[in-house]
Design a protein that fits this description.
By secondary structure, this protein is an alpha/beta fold. The chain contains nine helices and five strands; from the N terminus they run E-H-E-H-E-H-E-H-E-H-H-H-H-H. It holds the Pfam family Nuc_deoxyrib_tr.
Length: about 250
């Protein structure tokens, strides 16, 4: 199991020892992608890395993780941002809150039914409750989507449980549309300065489009003809024009 551990860094390192203990505990359950947060030498200045690199890396790790554990006793904008992003992509998240903290837990966390909140007043109690939750998630299937043909082999090598079924043709077409939405969102998140990342996401996007064309028996020649006709009527994006104005009812 791949675990993304989230905890305050620049907001304050008063819980550095707790983070160190948590990373050590979580390592018994799998690979902690953000093990550096448990480094006792890490200060409020954060990592000595380029900011854009840290953002892209952490977003990639969140996407890769099976579950996210967030220690929220020290309020942090970064941790809150990560939790919201995690919720959007539908991954399980467990938040840990020390009840003797001078800061109150946010109502946005406590009132959110999609987040499992574990309150604790000592490490042993937190460890006991967290272990129960992790044991539940370890046995769950984290995949319920259209996958490429060789993905089951990769999942099996990672030691994860899975069940592969063959979709009906109609459900396959529906799944392709959903996959197109997923890949479009991934492409939209890419920073324009990162050409390699743009290329990788475009490949995934085009692959889904080609699969839709094949499933719907759409001729690439017909698509090319239609594209030329539309370009003739509407033009292209070559001149980088943008329109602003009130919506016409």
């Amino acid at each position: 199991m791949k675990i993304y551990f989230s905890g305050a860094i620049r907001a304050g390192r008063e819980n550095a020892l707790l983070h160190h203990q948590l990373v050590k505990f979580l390592s018994d359950y799998g690979k902690v992608l953000t093990s550096h947060i448990g480094d006792m030498n890490l200060t409020e200045k954060g990592e000595a890395r380029e900011i854009n690199y840290i953002y892209r890396r952490d977003m990639r790790w969140i996407k890769e993780a099976d579950i996210v554990i967030a220690e929220i006793s020290t309020p942090s904008v970064g941790v809150g941002y990560e939790i919201r992003h995690i919720e959007e992509i539908g991954k399980p998240v467990i938040c840990l809150y020390f009840t003797k903290s001078p800061k109150n837990v946010s109502g946005m966390i406590e009132g959110n039914k999609n987040i499992k909140l574990i309150k604790y007043d000592n490490f042993a109690k937190m460890e006991f409750n967290l272990r129960k939750e992790l044991d539940k998630h370890k046995s769950k299937i984290f995949y319920n989507k259209l996958i490429r043909d060789k993905i089951p082999e990769i999942i099996k090598k990672q030691g994860k449980k899975y069940r592969v079924s063959t979709l009906s043709f109609e459900n396959f077409k529906k799944a392709l549309k959903q996959k197109l939405v997923e890949e479009s969102k991934e492409f939209a998140k890419v920073k324009t300065i990162n050409k390699k990342e743009i290329e990788n996401e475009l490949v995934d996007l085009k692959e889904v489009i080609e699969a839709i064309e094949k499933a719907e028996h759409i001729s690439t020649k017909n698509i090319a003809v239609l594209k030329r006709e539309k370009n003739k009527k509407r033009g292209t994006f070559e001149k980088k024009k943008n329109a602003m104005g009130r919506k016409i009812e």
